[in-house]
Design a protein that fits this description.
Keywords: Cell membrane, Membrane, Transmembrane, Transmembrane helix, Transport. It is found in: Cell membrane. This is Carbohydrate ABC transporter permease. There is one protein chain. This protein is mainly alpha-helical. It has one domain: MetI-like (MetI-like fold, Orthogonal Bundle), CATH 1.10.3720. Helix content is 79%, strand content 0%. The longest helix has 35 residues. The protein is globular and about 75 Å long. The chain starts with a helix and ends with a helix. 32% of the residues are buried.
Length: 275
C-alpha cells in the first residue's frame, strides 16, 4: 500500500505543478485587470483590494473589444459551419465510396496539413487582393476554411472508416441515394466526431492572429485576438486595460474547454486511434 501511495504522489505532484503553471497566468491577468494603473505601477504582484470592473468596461466599450468580439463570432461561426459541411462530405466520400483516385485525393488532403500558413501567406494575400477579398468577412472565412479543411477531412475520414460498410449497403438497398445515405445515415452516426471537430476548429479560428491580421487590416473589421494585440501598442502604459482585453478574449475559450473537454479529447482520439 505504501508503494502504491508513493507512486500516486509521484504522479500527483508533477500534475499539480503543471496545473498551477497553467492557471497562474490567468489568475495573474484577472488580478491585474482589477487594478488601477497606479496600483499596478506601485506593486504589480500584489492582490487587488477590490473588484474594479471599470477596466473591463473601458476595454469593451471605449477600446472596441465588443465590436471585435462580434466580428470574431461571425467569422468563426461561418467558418466552422462550412468546415463541418465540406469536411463531413469529403470524409464520407473518401471513407465509404469507391472511386478511382480516392487514395491519392486523401493523401493530397494530408499533404495540406504540412503546409504552414507562413509559406503561402504572400501569394495568398495577393490572390485575395486581386479578387477584392481583402478586408472582407468572406475573404477571411475562405482562408480559414482552406487552412483547416485538411485537418477536418482527416479526422472525419478516420472516424467514418470505423462505420461498417454493411450499413451503407443496407441503406442503398432500401432505395437511398448517395445524398440520402449521407444525410440519413452518416450525419447522425458522425455526430460525436462532428461535435469534436467543430469545437477544435472553433478554437483554432478564435485563437488565430496571423491570418486575421493579414486579411483584416482595417480597425473596423478586426477580430478579437487582433484587437488584443493592438491594445499592447495603443495602451502600452495602461496594463490593466490591456489585461482586461486579454481576459475578454480568454473567457470564451476557457468556457469551451471547461464544459466540452470530453468532446475535445474524443475528437483528438477519433483521428489518432481509429481508421
Amino acid at each position: 500500500m505504501s508503494r502504491i501511495r508513493l507512486s500516486r504522489w509521484l504522479v500527483a505532484i508533477p500534475m499539480a505543478l503543471l496545473a498551477l503553471a497553467t492557471v497562474y497566468p490567468l489568475l495573474f491577468t484577472a488580478n491585474v485587470a482589477m487594478k488601477t494603473r497606479r496600483d499596478y505601477i506601485l506593486d504589480r504582484f500584489s492582490l487587488t483590494d477590490a473588484l474594479r470592473w471599470e477596466n473591463i468596461s473601458t476595454a469593451w466599450n471605449s477600446v472596441g473589444m465588443g465590436r471585435y468580439f462580434v466580428n470574431s463570432l461571425l467569422v468563426v461561426t461561418s467558418s466552422v459551419v462550412l468546415l463541418l459541411l465540406f469536411g463531413s462530405m469529403a470524409g464520407f466520400a473518401l471513407s465509404q465510396l469507391r472511386f478511382r483516385g480516392s487514395t491519392a485525393l486523401f493523401l493530397g488532403c494530408l499533404a495540406g496539413l504540412f503546409v504552414p500558413f507562413q509559406v503561402i501567406m504572400v501569394p495568398l494575400a495577393r490572390i485575395m487582393a486581386d479578387g477584392g477579398l481583402i478586408d472582407t468577412y468572406p475573404g477571411l472565412i475562405l482562408v480559414y476554411v482552406a487552412q483547416f479543411l485538411p485537418f477536418t477531412v482527416f479526422l472525419m475520414t478516420s472516424y467514418y472508416k470505423t462505420i461498417p460498410p454493411e450499413i451503407i449497403d443496407a441503406a442503398r438497398i432500401d432505395g437511398n441515394s448517395v445524398y440520402g445515405v449521407y444525410r440519413r445515415i452518416m450525419l447522425p452516426l458522425g455526430t460525436p466526431a462532428l461535435l469534436s471537430v467543430g469545437i477544435l476548429n472553433a478554437l483554432f479560428c478564435w485563437n488565430d492572429v496571423l491570418m486575421a491580421l493579414v486579411m483584416m487590416p482595417s480597425a473596423d473589421h478586426r477580430t478579437l485576438m487582433v484587437g488584443v494585440t493592438s491594445l499592447r501598442g495603443q495602451y502600452s502604459d495602461d496594463i490593466p486595460t490591456f489585461a482586461s482585453g486579454v481576459l475578454i478574449a480568454a473567457v470564451p475559450v476557457l468556457v469551451v474547454y471547461l464544459f466540452l473537454q470530453r468532446q475535445i479529447a474524443d475528437g483528438v482520439a477519433a483521428g489518432s486511434t481509429k481508421g
